[in-house]
Design goal:
Elements: H1 3-9, H2 13-20, H3 31-85, H4 92-115, E1 117-118, E2 121-122, E3 131-132, E4 143-144, H5 150-162, H6 167-213, H7 217-256
Antiparallel strand pairs: 1-2, 3-4
């Protein structure tokens, strides 16, 4: 074996650990440790994806709540107009103008229930049922639904058409919207806590995995230095042996001559 081959073959586990930063570079290094860290890695990646899922779901919930805020504003204006329309000092023509504005607001409510979307999915038409947040590392999470708000637009359109200025119906619709907004707000807060919990769990698992899988760099650097010194000693010894062998051959040749 040549001197260069000796130098190449002395690449130790310590040098591999220093180069990679990992204590476990193959199953042979620590079979049990490898199995544990792989399970931890799967859990960490699941938690991180669950956190992203939760933030996406929170964005969708906030979008739905924003659509309902528009509906609530329209309902408040409709109620205001209805109270005005009940005033006995108005003419029928003036009431007709009020009814026309209520009709326009009702169409706006219908647009909001049909047009409030997230990732091309309509949120307020009752199609969002039993939605899985997939907030956990196992793909599970809180399941929720968003109620159908389309009937509110129909009720407001009826008020505009019959000129009833039905405050009870308006208040009922307002309560329905307020209740749904409250549910979505609470759910958004829950998503916040879930995402934060995932983040903390992931960080703790990363720390635990690091203690198992990461190399002890000061110790490994010391091992590398020891390997280097042993390499140099082995190379010098081989060179000395080669020189002695050459001297022996030379003396043999000289004696034979």
């Amino acid at each position: 074996m040549t001197v260069n081959n000796i130098a190449r073959n002395q690449m130790s586990n310590a040098m591999m650990r220093v180069a990679s930063g990992n204590r476990i570079n193959s199953a042979a290094d620590d079979a049990a440790g490898l199995a544990i860290t792989e399970n931890m890695t799967a859990q960490i990646r699941g938690l991180d994806q669950g956190e992203r899922n939760t933030r996406d779901m929170q964005a969708m919930i906030n979008t739905a709540e924003g659509g309902l805020e528009t509906v609530a504003d329209s309902l408040n204006r409709i109620r205001e107009l209805s109270v005005q329309g009940l005033n006995g000092t108005l003419t029928e023509g003036q009431r007709a103008m009020i009814q026309n504005e209520i009709g326009q607001l009702a169409e706006g409510i219908q647009d909001a229930t049909r047009g409030t979307e997230f990732n091309t999915m309509t949120l307020l038409d009752g199609s969002m049922q039993n939605v899985n947040t997939a907030a956990g590392a196992d793909g599970r999470g809180p399941v929720f639904s968003i109620n159908d708000m389309s009937s509110i637009a129909q009720a407001m359109t009826a008020i505009a058409e019959d000129g009833s200025f039905d405050l009870d119906a308006i208040d009922s619709a307002t309560n329905q919207v307020s209740g749904e907004r409250a549910n979505l707000g609470a759910l958004s807060n829950r998503m916040d806590y879930t995402a934060n919990a995932n983040s903390v769990s992931s960080l703790n698992l990363v720390d635990a995995r690091s203690r198992i899988a990461d190399a002890d760099m000061p110790r490994e650097m010391l091992n590398v230095e020891q390997d280097r010194m042993l390499n140099e000693v082995q190379i010098l010894m081989q060179q000395r042996q080669q020189e002695q062998a050459e001297d022996s051959v030379l003396r043999t040749l000289q004696t034979g001559a």
